[in-house]
Design goal:
alpha+beta; eight-stranded antiparallel beta sheet; about 30% strand; globular
């Protein structure tokens, strides 16, 4: 598998206060987390097209712990390597106005769960309703569990990526090109950028 590196302009201007320490102990080896989801190596066994992985409404981003968590549907993101060719990373973008953003900022890990088309109604609900107003997981009937590291994921998913946060910072409008200027003229809520190292992965 070719190593993929995605370069984006403003998010790579790293302020010291934006970096999350990488010196913590290594995560435990991935264990089977359900009867159907089994561990796999994203560097040698990844089978999905990274350019279409975030297409549509089939991905849920989740962060938090058992006593307090939130999840939302996402459609923007990146896969690749960063700060080492053997460090697989996921980059996600969350508007500051979203309820999930606070959970992303306050927690060291996040998960990305990918679903098949049969869950399209649930994905649409998770993307158009706020966790501030009620329990979205209960409303959709999705089955949520927690990993060995204590992070929320969904057993209904076809693929789950558990990521340790390496970096977080907002986009800087001073670096916007024509496309970004057009996007944020329509909605002025800037996205925060979160980059996480894939420490565990499971698929059906």
């Amino acid at each position: 598998m070719k190593q993929l590196f995605f370069c984006f302009t403003t998010a790579v201007v790293l302020a010291a206060s934006s970096l999350t320490s990488c010196s913590s102990p290594a995560a435990p080896a991935a264990e089977q987390i359900s009867t159907e989801l089994k561990p796999f190596d994203v560097r040698s066994e990844w089978k999905k097209n990274p350019f279409t992985f975030f297409d549509g409404d089939g991905l849920l981003l989740a962060a938090g712990k058992k006593d307090s968590m939130n999840a939302m549907t996402i459609g923007w993101g990146q896969l690749g390597t960063l700060w080492g060719m053997d460090r697989p990373v996921v980059t996600v973008f969350v508007r500051k106005s979203r309820h999930t953003d606070a959970f992303m900022a306050q927690n060291d890990y996040f998960t990305v769960s990918g679903f098949s088309a049969q869950f399209s109604d649930a994905m649409r609900y998770m993307g158009t309703h706020s966790g501030r107003d009620g329990d979205k997981v209960k409303a959709t009937g999705l089955k949520m569990e927690f990993t060995q590291l204590g992070n929320p994921f969904f057993t209904d998913a076809d693929i789950v990526l558990e990521c340790k946060k390496l970096y977080q910072a907002p986009f800087q409008p001073s670096g916007f090109g024509e496309v970004a200027v057009g996007v944020y003229q329509k909605d002025t809520s800037i996205h925060n950028v979160y980059i996480g190292e894939v420490v565990n992965a499971w698929s059906r």
